[in-house]
Write a structure and sequence with these properties.
The complex is a heterodimer. By secondary structure, chain A is of the alpha/beta class. Helix content of chain A is 27%, strand content 27%. In chain A, a hairpin with a 2-residue loop joins strand 2 and strand 3. In chain A, helix 4 crosses helix 5 and helix 6 runs parallel beside helix 9. By secondary structure, chain B is α/β, with parallel strands linked by helices. Chain B has seven helices and 13 strands. Chain B is globular. The chains are: A alpha/beta, B alpha/beta. The interface between A and B is large, with 92 and 81 residues. Chain A: Heterodimer of an alpha and a beta subunit.
């Protein structure tokens, strides 16, 4: 309490001109089974680039929160970890989390930015909160720059499925700027030895919520997670069915220690799970190596993978658009080339 | 008089006229935006939203009282509205903005939808005339923001079901069971009406359906369906953007590195950059 008061005094003294508040980001840290989501670690890095204080927010049930807070305290760039515990936060829906955010951000909270990964849950939550505060949400930013003197933040973000890059400025007149961060554009915040301070926050109970979580089904896999894998092997419609998709792609992916991805055509045809889709409407990946097998290379697919370091394409059609972006192209029947590649790799 | 026990749904479907998904867009030389002198069509996610509204009526019959399509855009956006009407919406609302004006930001769009719902619900003679379901696409393929539905739900304080791939509505209980696409899998939630739904592409697979093509007779019929024209000023709204677009640029060009003749050459290329099998 004392601290807050002294802060207010200091600000009152300094405020001869309408000086914008120094940046203070609130980063929504997502976690599952005690592990902080890699996308949230990238969001932290982006928040740190604003050049001010960074507070991380961890919400969850009493079983989940303590372990995650311990990890969050050690993350580079984190000045404080706010945490809020409630049974309602175990599998939170935006309708239940939004009031907590509103409580945290109301009045003179000092927060100037609210940051999250571009994840499905944050994408559902942040715009809801921002609208209630009459502020925009800037989605999926790939770079940012904060101007402390004017309090404005300039972002770049891809539009038109990544076929154009838009540079937008959120002026100082927007007191709290909401944005989600494209994970592949920022390195994840590493752990350090230091520990940030922690501050428990009272949960805001939502009586009789209008939306209730019933169940979650997560597709389990031993392979690395698609969004953060350093190598990705991806298949398209040419794989004919789910069985050949697995038979062709999985051994190659395992040989390389790669994650498996799929084009929308392959997902739509039922060869692969939805969660594997790479593209404008699926995941955006930027691995060291992306091998596109039997994928023609539609704009929507390229939107999800064209920032990969090295793109390899294997396709029967020499005119497939994928060859225009591939660093290495092989025109061949995938049913021969892929097993051969897998075999020779293993040697 | 109708028996009061019957619950009726009134669905609002906002649709956006966007550059056709198959068009290879070009950034204009002034770097202020893209060359929009190209084919436009209804945002694909919005097509799914319209289809979903029409399917709901096919499943629930008379329980779906009205389907209203709404668009905010230049005069040409009327075409998009007509497409929605030809697909099965009953009437349209067109909030017209000038061709040269910047596209309204999602928050302005959400406020427009809110105002339209509030006006309609205030004028409603009974509960059964009120809009209690809004179905939107999960994102527009031009700005790729994907925030309007959530903003609307926040402004209205309604429940929201984003990235929905399956929706079952119990009109008597005023509840919806929704399967959502989330990172790494799926999620099931139960929402109370009134509700805002945003559609995922996967809705198509889960239901094994694609958005219908409007048939010629339906296109002809759609020409007779009513469209109410409004302006932002009529609704007491100001579309001045909060954000300033400084510039729009081309992404860095990626140049293909050419082709190799066989698997061995491919392996050699991989080796060059240090990629080998993981032990």
């Amino acid at each position: 309490m004392l601290r807050t008061r002294s802060l207010i005094c200091r600000r009152a003294l300094v405020r001869t001109y309408a000086t914008p508040a120094s940046p203070h980001a609130l980063v929504f840290l997502e976690h599952r089974e005690g592990v902080i989501a890699p996308g949230s670690l990238s969001a932290l890095t982006a928040a740190e680039q604003l050049g001010g204080q960074v507070s991380a927010l961890v919400v969850g049930s009493s079983e989940q929160v303590p372990a995650v807070v311990e990890k969050a305290k050690k993350l580079k760039g984190v000045n404080s970890v706010l945490h809020s515990t409630s049974p309602q936060y175990a599998e939170p829906v935006p309708e239940v989390l939004s009031p907590l955010f509103e409580e945290l951000l109301k009045g003179n909270s000092g927060f100037t930015h609210v940051v999250s990964a571009t994840s499905s849950s944050a994408k559902s939550l942040l715009p809801r909160v921002s609208a209630r505060l009459d502020a925009p949400t800037i989605s999926d930013i790939t770079s940012l720059e904060h101007d402390a003197s004017s309090g404005s933040t300039t972002f770049t973000r891809p539009i038109y499925a990544g076929n154009a890059i838009s540079t937008v400025r959120a002026p100082g007149s927007i007191p709290i700027k909401f944005f989600t961060v494209r994970g592949t554009a920022f390195a994840p915040a590493p752990a350090t030895a230091e520990g940030a301070e922690e501050k428990p926050v009272d949960p805001v109970e939502v009586k009789d919520p209008v939306t209730v979580h019933l169940k979650t089904t997560i597709a389990k896999s031993d392979r690395p997670e698609l969004g953060v894998a350093s190598r990705v092997v991806s298949g398209g419609r040419a794989l004919k069915n789910a069985e050949t998709f697995q038979k062709m792609l999985y051994p190659l992916a395992d040989a390389l220690g790669a994650a498996v991805g799929a084009s929308r055509a392959a997902v739509d045809a039922g060869y692969a799970d939805n969660s594997l889709q790479v593209g404008q409407t699926g995941k955006v990946v930027a691995p060291e190596l992306y091998i596109a097998i039997g994928i023609s290379g539609a704009i929507q697919h390229l939107a999800g993978m064209k920032d990969s370091k090295m793109i390899v394409a294997i396709n029967k059609d020499p005119d497939a658009p994928i060859f225009q972006v591939a660093d290495v192209g092989l025109v061949a029947d995938l049913y021969e080339a892929v097993p051969e590649l897998t075999e020779k790799l293993k040697k | 008089m109708r028996p009061s026990a019957v619950r009726l749904l009134n669905i609002l479907v906002p649709v956006k006229r966007a550059v056709d998904y198959a068009v290879k867009i070009r950034v204009n030389p002034q770097q202020t935006g893209i060359d929009t002198n190209v084919k436009h069509s209804m945002n694909p996610f919005d097509e799914i939203a319209v289809e979903e509204a029409v399917r709901l009526r096919e499943r629930l019959g008379a329980k779906v009282k009205t389907i209203t399509a709404l668009t905010i855009g230049p005069a040409k956006a009327t075409d998009t509205l007509r497409t929605a009407l030809a697909m099965g919406a009953d009437s349209g609302i067109h909030v017209e903005v000038s061709e040269s004006a910047p596209a309204p930001e999602p928050l302005s769009v959400a406020k427009t939808i809110r105002t339209i719902i509030e006006r309609r619900n205030k004028d409603a003679k009974s509960e059964e005339d009120k809009i209690d379901l809004v179905i939107l696409g999960k994102q527009a393929i031009d700005d790729d923001l994907g925030v309007t539905g959530q903003m609307l739900a926040g402004l209205m304080d309604w429940s929201q079901a984003t990235f929905a791939s399956k929706v079952e509505i119990d009109t008597d209980k005023k509840e919806a069971l929704v399967v959502r696409e989330i990172d790494g899998g799926g999620e099931e939630i139960k929402c109370r009406l009134p509700l805002v739904i945003t559609t995922d592409l996967r809705w198509v697979d889960h239901n094994n359906l694609s958005p219908r093509y409007a048939s010629l007779p339906n296109i002809m019929k759609a020409k007779k369906k009513p469209i109410e024209k409004l302006t932002p000023a009529d609704l007491g709204l100001d579309y001045t953007p909060q954000l300033e677009t400084l510039k729009v640029t081309e992404p860095p060009k990626r140049v293909g590195g050419g082709k190799v003749a066989n698997v061995d050459e491919l392996l050699a290329k991989l080796k060059e950059v240090g990629i080998e099998a993981k032990a």
